[in-house]
Design goal:
The protein has a single domain, classed as Yope Regulator, Chain: A (2-Layer Sandwich). It contains three helices and six strands, in the order αββββαββα. A six-stranded antiparallel beta sheet has the order 1-2-3-4-6-5.
Amino acid sequence: MNNYFDKVKSYLLELDLSILLEDEADGVIVVSNEEDGINNLVLGIADPLLIIEQFLVELKEPSADDYKHLLQKNRDIVHGSFVIDDSGSKVIFRDTLQLENLDLNEVEASFNSLSLLLNEYSDELIKLSGN
């Protein structure tokens, strides 16, 4: 059986991400790269998928227009997308990748997509949060 946990961890280290927490038994790694706006990003290694999630903002009083705006923005995101949690108020960046053929370029593309999104869209996210 492939050891996807070690494979993913090696990619994260190669990308100079700080590993804040790792739990091989649960297949969870939490990373940070504050320079790129990445903080407490959670990676779940759940064969056959690598799940990447970054909490972005909480919507104080979410409206249909807020959700519509987020869905429209999803079209511009290169890798990953906006999702909301079960409460409907937390906006999360999420990407899923296949573990079987995973390579460094794919992982890097996901992180680059998130960094670009945060760089270009942070003001809008702040407005959506009501702050």
